[in-house]
Amino acid sequence: MPTTAQGRPRDPRIDNDVLIVTREMLRTHGWDGLSLRAIAARAGVGRAALTRRWPTKAHLVLDALLGSAPDLTPYDGIDRKGWIEWVVTGSIELFSRPEVRAALPGLLAALRDHDDLRNTLWRTFSGPSTALFADGRDESRSAEDVADAETDARAVLVMAAGAALFAGIIAAEDDTPALRARILELLSTVAER
Q1: Could you give phi then psi for residue 124, rounded to 5 degrees?
Q2: For residue 38, what are the contacts with CB-CB under 8 A and spacing of at least 6?
Q3: Would you give the DSSP letter of residue 55?
Q4: DSSP conformational letter for 97
Q5: Spatial distance between the Cα atoms of 100 and 68, rounded to a whole number of angstroms
Q6: pTM passes above 0.85
Q7: b/e sequence 30-46, b meaning 16+ C-beta within 10 Å
Q8: CA–CA separation, 91 and 162 (whole Å)
Q9: Cα Rg, the chain, nearest whole Å
Q10: What is the DSSP letter of 45?
Q11: CA pair distance 23, 167, nearest whole angstrom
């Protein structure tokens, strides 16, 4: 989640190199072994270049793991069942990545302690996804129906991500294709509402 600043244009190569190094270092050193100074040194950039873009380690790690916004273009026009499948599958894939697993303990603590970062993360990723789910082709839907669809979408996001996190970290021995398929089946009933 890079910040913007005035001055000369930013070099996108720096952003790309730093994000790659951050993911690599998460896999090899974990959250506790990660520092902005070490990332800057390994990426061959000054620490000031990092702090101009990412004010904290948590901001940098979130950007490295998630990007600055979800890419929803492949899902334009998808039906609700497909949306739910995308959310469940995407959550499982996300929490299975080694760099995400390495970052989770520290990142969860950072999110707990920084309301602004947590709220921005949730709005950035839930807002567009929720709108995609709630976008009805039926012009006669009431405002209440739209609000209900948005609540359903947020609930599915929370349940899918929570299930993927819990299954991958806590219930790892039960994290099987059969369990994943059942989670998807149960959550897919929301598409019929």
Answers
A1: -65, -40
A2: 25, 29
A3: S
A4: S
A5: 16
A6: no
A7: bbeebebeebbeebebe
A8: 8
A9: 19
A10: S
A11: 22
The phi and psi torsions of 120 (rounded to 5 degrees) equal -65, -45
Grouping H, G, I as helix, E, B as strand and the rest as coil, residue 90 is: helix
CA–CA dist 106, 58 (Å, integer): 8
**Cα distances (angstroms) measured from residue 192 to each of 34, 186, 189:** 45, 11, 6
Please write the tens of the pLDDT for every residue from 36-58: 999 999 999 999 989 999 999 99
Question: Would you state the pLDDT for residue 145?
Answer: 83
pLDDT in tens, 123-133: 988 888 888 88
Tokens of residue 171, six digits? 């219930």
User: Is 25:39 a contact under the CB 8 Å cutoff?
Assistant: yes
Under the banding of pLDDT at 50, 70 and 90, the label for residue 169 is confident
Which of 173, 78, 161 is closest to 126 using CA atoms? 161
| Chain length of the chain | 193
Cα distances (Å, whole numbers) of residue 132 to 29, 41, 68, 77: 37, 40, 18, 8
Cα–Cα distance, 177 to 183 (Å, whole number): 10
Contact 117, 54 (CB under 8 A): no
| Residue 94, helix vs strand vs coil | helix
How do residues 91-104 score in pLDDT, each as one tens digit?
898 999 999 999 99
Is the distance from CB of 50 to CB of 60 less than 8 angstroms?
yes
